[in-house]
């Protein structure tokens, strides 16, 4: 083979190799372009998915913010004070009513403050000692707390501490001052005379029962003094019921200034009063001295309006336990003694 033929063959091989490389490069370039296209498509799809996810997150965030605003509005417009504390009784969350009830500045950051620095000790939730665990090993770390508490300014709060499973407490504070005052007024009316404000027959009976219990437990004797205003009916008939009522109030004031604690004064009915005398010692001499003071005090003249009124009283006395072992019997015996003490002709 001559040189020209050899060269021609070599050129053909090199040309074929070059065409092969061109084909490979073309396939590689085509593959790269296809991969780039797929990558761009995937990137676009991913961006679209991210945009959609971001929009969903923004919608959820707006929904959560709306729910938080609703929750905050509901909590801050509650009539009850509310706070949330952790297991160490540190304040986590509180509403405006809670801050107002305890005169706390709203602009201050109370989060993390120890609850004992804000509330009286008697209002704090109580943790139970783990030594109270039952035999199965179930530890009751905290117990519910519900009770009424009166603040120094007279506000009455119903306090509730509910333990959370994760530790800490949800606490509410309800202002029940008006309700409690109404209940106190009703209870006072049920046990006190409306005209004089003195204990009535029911409350006097209860005090006498308590004295009998003390007598049985500690051996402390006592006396029941039954009083009746002499000729009070004449005052009512001649001067009128308003004057009679004013006179009864004046008599109640005289008795209150004459009788000292722990003795109890009561208006039983009409012009009848009673005294539960608890001397502690020297029962008979002390009772006699008290009766003399009462007789002297009641007999001083009264000025009712522009009218001076002079009255007296009669007293019947019964001693516990000599004259009876129950309240009804003692009061009845004192009433009988009063009947015998009244002079003929008095009313």
TrEMBL record:
The keyword Membrane applies. The chain crosses the membrane at residues 24-45. It is an enzyme of class 2 (transferase). Keywords: Membrane, Nucleotidyltransferase, Transferase, Transmembrane, Transmembrane helix. Signal peptide: none annotated. Residues 220-347 form the GGDEF domain. This is Diguanylate cyclase.
């Amino acid at each position: 083979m001559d040189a020209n033929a050899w060269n021609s063959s070599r050129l053909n091989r090199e040309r074929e190799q070059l065409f092969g490389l061109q084909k490979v490069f073309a396939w590689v370039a085509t593959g790269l372009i296809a991969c780039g296209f797929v990558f761009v498509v995937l990137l676009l799809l991913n961006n679209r998915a991210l945009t959609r996810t971001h929009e969903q997150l923004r919608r959820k965030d707006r929904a959560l913010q709306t729910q938080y605003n609703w929750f905050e509005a509901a909590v801050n417009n509650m009539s009850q004070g509310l706070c949330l504390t952790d297991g160490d009784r540190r304040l986590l969350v509180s509403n405006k009513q809670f801050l107002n009830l305890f005169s706390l500045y709203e602009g201050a950051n109370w989060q993390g403050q120890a609850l004992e620095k804000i509330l009286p000790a008697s209002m704090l939730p109580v943790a139970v000692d783990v030594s109270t665990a039952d035999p199965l090993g179930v530890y009751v770390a905290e117990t519910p707390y519900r009770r009424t508490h009166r603040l120094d300014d007279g506000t009455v709060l119903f306090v509730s501490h509910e333990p959370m499973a994760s530790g800490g407490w949800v606490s509410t504070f309800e202002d029940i001052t008006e309700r409690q005052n109404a209940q106190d007024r009703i209870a006072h009316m049920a046990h006190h005379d409306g005209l004089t404000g003195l204990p009535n027959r029911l409350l006097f009976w209860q005090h006498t029962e308590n004295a009998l219990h003390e007598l049985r437990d500690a051996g402390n004797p006592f006396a029941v003094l039954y009083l009746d205003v002499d000729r009070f009916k004449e005052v009512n008939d001649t001067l009128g019921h308003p004057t009679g009522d004013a006179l009864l109030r004046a008599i109640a004031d005289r008795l209150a200034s004459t009788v000292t604690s722990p003795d109890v004064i009561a208006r039983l009915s009409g012009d009848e009063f009673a005294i539960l005398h608890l001397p502690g010692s020297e029962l008979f001499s002390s009772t006699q001295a008290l009766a003399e003071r009462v007789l002297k005090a009641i007999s001083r003249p009264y000025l009712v309006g522009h009218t001076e009124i002079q009255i007296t009283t009669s007293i019947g006395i019964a001693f516990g336990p000599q004259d009876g072992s129950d309240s009804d019997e003692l009061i009845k015996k004192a009433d009988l003694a009063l009947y015998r003490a009244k002079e003929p002709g008095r009313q």
